[in-house]
Design a protein that fits this description.
homodimer, alpha+beta, 7-stranded mixed sheet, 6-stranded mixed sheet, disordered C terminus
Chain lengths: 342, 342
């Protein structure tokens, strides 16, 4: 057998390589691999289905992630994918693998976080599986959402001239991760120290307890805006803009000064003498929505404090530019999650 | 925090304890935790959703399980749960966790097995996730199936007097596992030996390449038989009969002489000086269907070589008896999979 290292392909390369060997054969399958979620259709109802794997030591560190937060976040990151299809999350299944070291009370803490997310988003836990592992823990969650069939929004349908919008603020989750890892590192050196999280509450919260922006898709529906394309920001703004642009066969131009960044994120970046835009562009895990709208919809959104218009889609397929504050154009690059390249 | 060991609860105890804290709130959720699959409803169409976790070292041993078989089996065990609801499998998602030691070609072998199962059962791969692990591999598969709403069959709906039927033969998968583990053990002692699988082809196949009995649910539909209750045999016949009986608030009586056992399974049990019925009752992983039918449906099935009528449901709630060949009654006990008790 030939032996090709996974690092030469990366995650997206692996997925593309697998996907091309599989055919879609059922009439109920509208969209398979390649978006935030698969799309199935039954009459006028479309369902979206998405799944995420969270593995201890790869996606989370139990030294500083509380179990309840782990459960909550494991659910919300999946619901975020459902919202990114403009669908409403309805059901989840949760499979959990835990070593014999786990006690019942620890598992109940994880499920308490899962339950809180279910209550918060009106989602039913309908199934799952439980197993021991040889070591470490993992969670595998599948989420199902509903929408009327003509309201589903994909990644590949942005048009030239469309405005690029983003909800909330970016870079905070990555900043929060840096704080947590810094304090953990100091604690490892000196276990008598007390982690300092004061002054970092917002960014730590962004990392530990991200929300799915169901409120944004409800707000857009209320304003009678159907985005032309949408994706959630799990891998950083750059990577997601490239996904929408590439799948739509278009380019994009975004403006550095328009990227929404919270004061606390900016202050922490300055503390590290780093550019806060880097956190927003490449940090990931913000779980905000990135979407494109027709220019004619702009008046409905322009005074919305929770939505930033950061640029527009262009005809120049494959050309993705960040316009810096001084007017220079920098090529956007996907520097998101590279799990397999480690 | 209190510390209660999981072994005091077992898997089913844990699931019950978790399930009772969760409420169902969406109208599309017909059935949550507690059957082979969850049931969702959209108009006249019911969907069933089921998910299984397979963890290396717990559920499979890559020293003797070929990667292609692993992929195939990971799919079919999920499709078996779909069939057990009397639904037709249509879509799957596959999440896979692998260590950096895995090469692309090894992953492609797993996916080739997954693809073969998709082709065999007319199922679409519609999504998934990929991740590295710290060590070992794991697969998490979710399967979705469809049925018209009035054709879904649950575990809890068996009636006194119903006949208990089982498809195919039982105990073979467990026998096959014993052969594989025996040969692996001999190989570990003397790596120059060649594993002897000749004469054990059928039982090894039962272990490595189980099928979902989609053909059985199609056959039953063709005969105009709607089972009154159904479950797939993943944990051994005893455990599954107890599930149907307990959830239906009934008892059951089955006859040892009626349990279908293949010649090769019987021969191997004799070789080990064991009772082949033990393999059938407690072995598990046969993925045959256990179902109950009204007595009036018996004539339609009585000459079917692939279906054995092994007993009947009784009014005596909680009384589960195995009638031995000499006429004595033995209490049936669930001795299936006890992952958490290890």
């Amino acid at each position: 057998m030939q032996r090709t290292s996974l690092s030469t392909l990366g995650e997206f390369g692996l997925i593309d390589r697998i996907a091309e060997k599989f055919q879609i054969t059922n009439t109920s399958t509208v969209k398979g691999i390649g978006d935030d979620a698969a799309v199935l259709r039954y009459g006028d109802t479309s369902l979206v289905v998405t799944t995420d794997l969270l593995i201890e030591g790869v996606h989370y560190d139990l030294r500083y992630v509380p179990l309840k937060h782990l459960g909550y976040k494991a659910v919300t990151v999946n619901l975020s994918d459902v919202c990114a299809m403009n669908a409403k999350p309805k059901q989840i299944t949760v499979s959990i693998g835990i070593s014999n070291k786990f006690y019942l009370e620890a598992i109940e803490e994880i499920y308490e976080g899962i339950r809180l997310a279910c209550v918060q988003y009106g989602v039913d836990l309908v199934g799952g599986d439980t197993s021991t592992t040889k070591s470490g823990s993992m969670l595998s969650i599948t989420a199902i959402g509903e929408a009327t069939a003509d309201k589903i929004v994909y990644r590949h349908t942005a048009n030239a001239g469309d405005l690029i919008c983003v909800s909330g603020d970016l870079g905070g989750a990555y900043a929060g991760l840096q704080v947590l890892e810094r304090e953990q590192h100091l604690f490892d050196i000196d276990p008598s120290m007390t982690p300092v999280l004061k002054g970092y509450e917002y960014i730590v919260q962004r990392q530990l307890k991200p929300e799915a922006r169901k409120d944004v898709i409800e707000m857009l529906a209320g304003l009678d805006i159907l985005p032309t394309a949408m994706i959630d920001i799990s891998d950083g703004l750059s990577s997601e803009i490239l996904h929408i642009g590439t799948k739509s066969g278009k380019g994009a131009k975004i403006y550095e000064s328009k990227i929404p960044i919270a004061d606390e994120t900016e202050a922490f970046a300055k503390e590290l003498q780093l550019d806060p835009n880097t956190f927003a562009l490449n940090g990931g895990e913000d779980y905000e929505l990135l979407f494109t709208i027709k220019q004619s919809d702009f008046p409905k959104l322009k005074n919305n404090p929770d939505i930033s218009v950061i640029g527009h889609i262009t005809e120049h397929a494959g050309v993705f530019e960040l316009i810096a504050d001084d007017g220079t154009a920098i090529a956007l690059q996907a520097q998101g999650w590279k799990n397999f390249a480690l």
